[in-house]
Specification:
Number of strands: 49
Shape: elongated
Structural class: mainly beta
Distance between the termini: 27 Å
Radius of gyration: 26 Å
Helix content: under 10%
Strand content: over 45%
Length: about 500
């Protein structure tokens, strides 16, 4: 498979626009059904809620919920409402919280996570009904129970289909800020989630047999946490046999501690099909992004900074994916990977286009990886990426492949290693065969060893390798790589 850059960009644009069109359609506020004569509105203060920061207002708010009925509207004016745990259990309701309405968990002596004398819920708000919309409000979970081994309490927990959350603030959740379990058509937009112990927003496809988790839209949110081990935004399936489908994650900002000890990421989609992840910003985390097992994913125009280890990791089986226009910079931290694809799996129809990777002190900038010889790459393109390094004391590869490779186009890339010791432009050192590689029109600059290294130290073989029109500057061993044992049909064309 060889596409022109124009074809790739057209495909990318069409995929992204289709995904965002889905997002626009899904985030429109629900309307009353045509046969409903009047929507019932219930103000919680008309049912005895005080909002005085002392009184338990749980029963009064639930009374307003029940009075509004299916399709009704509950309004929560300004004030601080103490609750033991609210439940949105009536279908198609809209809960409208004033921006100055604070919902706060009751505090008191507890036994096994239950406030004595209260029926304490496992979340500050549980959405169990279908078609619920929540807008506004501040949900303060600071009286929740934080325990590293027993995360029984959430911020807002969702088990009902078709939820929309707009412009809410969730503070200090003892686990996830917004947690949706085994439900589809979930939209989270314009929310702020601060200092969750777990993830800010987490959608999970658990162990429910036959349960679909589809049509997830997460846009324009901000997640921030100073807690080591906190995560950002995740959409997760426990198994490749239960994929999450049609996921849009766009225009979000995540800020995590820059030196995480836990292996967490700012953005993550596991086992996703038809995924758009674009225009997001992240600072910190162990990973910037990690997206295992994607099919038809577009990961574009994200800014990924300040991470500890990997900028963008796409492991396991990777099919029909485009990684385009991302800016990846560890901000001086000792990170080791810019973009890595296919570790422990196979990669097919992957395009890595127009990314900027900079600020590393060594490591692999773009890599197709295998572990213990597992992994294969077929029909891949690495085009028009800009890769620059800081001067460092450890090895550097602009591109590396430790997988079996069949049909790779490496074109128009700029690799400048700043004379980092033991630096290479490209390295191939897999155990299997490398067949059909075209290295064309690249610029290799300031490399301490050579531009391209074909290594058979692991028993790899090379066939049909072509070099055309590459520019090599300040590289002691030049283009290199043509004299190894086991290499056949290696053609070095014009060299600038």
């Amino acid at each position: 498979m060889t596409l022109s850059r124009r074809d790739v960009l057209k495909t990318l644009s069409a995929t992204a626009l289709a995904g965002l069109s889905t997002a626009t359609a899904m985030t429109a506020p629900p309307k009353a059904s045509a046969d409903r004569m009047q929507v019932i509105t219930a103000n919680v203060k008309d049912f005895g809620a005080t909002g005085d920061g002392t009184t338990d207002d749980t029963a009064a708010i639930h009374a307003a919920r029940d009075a509004a009925g299916a399709g009704g509207r509950i309004t929560v004016p300004s004030g601080t409402y103490m609750v033991s745990g609210l439940t949105a259990s009536v279908a198609d309701q809209t809960w409208e919280f004033s921006g100055a309405a604070v919902i706060k968990w009751m505090v008191g002596p507890r036994t096994n996570g239950v406030v004595e004398g209260e029926s304490r819920g496992s979340s500050i708000l549980l959405v169990s009904a279908e078609g619920v919309t929540l807008t506004g409000g501040v949900f303060d979970c600071s009286n929740g129970i934080t325990n590293e081994t027993d995360w029984s309490e959430q911020g807002i927990k969702v088990t009902g289909e078709g939820l929309t959350i707009w412009d809410a603030k969730i503070l200090n959740s003892p686990r996830h800020g917004i947690y949706a379990l085994n439900c589809s058509r979930v939209t989270v937009r314009g929310c702020t989630i601060s200092n969750s112990f777990g993830a800010g927003i987490f959608v999970q496809h658990g162990d429910e047999a036959g349960q679909a988790v589809d049509d997830i839209v997460i846009t324009d949110n901000r997640v921030e946490s100073a807690r080591d081990g906190a995560g950002g935004i995740g959409v997760f399936s426990n198994s490749p046999q239960r994929q999450v489908r049609r996921v849009v994650i766009s225009r979000n900002t995540v800020q995590l501690p820059p030196d995480q000890t836990a292996v967490t990421g700012a953005f993550s989609v596991w086992n996703g099909v038809d995924v758009v992840i674009n225009d997001n910003r992240s600072i910190g985390g162990f990973f910037g992004h990690t997206h295992p097992n994607p099919t038809r994913a577009t990961i574009s125009n994200n800014v990924i900074r300040g991470f500890k280890k990997y900028g963008l990791e796409i492991p396991l089986n990777v099919n029909e994916c485009v990684v385009s226009g991302n800016v990846i910079d560890p901000d001086g931290r000792n990170a080791s990977i810019g973009i890595t694809v296919g570790a422990r799996g196979a990669s097919q129809d992957v395009t890595i286009l127009g990314n900027t990777i900079t600020g590393f002190q060594g490591g692999t900038m773009i890599g197709f990886a295998s572990e213990d010889g597992v992994g294969a790459v077929r029909d891949a393109q690495v085009i028009d990426n800009i890769i620059t390094s800081q001067v460092a004391s450890r090895g550097f590869s602009g591109f590396s492949a430790s997988s079996t490779v069949t049909n790779l186009v490496f074109s128009g890339n700029v690799i400048n290693a700043a004379s980092t010791p033991d630096s290479y432009g490209m390295q191939f050192f897999q155990k299997g065969a490398t067949t059909g590689v075209h290295i064309i029109g690249n610029q290799f600059t300031n490399l301490a060893v050579r531009a391209v290294n074909l290594s058979n130290v692991n028993g790899g073989t090379f066939d049909q390798i072509r070099f055309t029109g590459n520019l090599v500057q300040n590289c002691p061993e030049g283009l290199g790589g043509s004299g190894v044992a086991g290499a056949t049909n290696v053609v070095i064309g014009s060299v600038g």
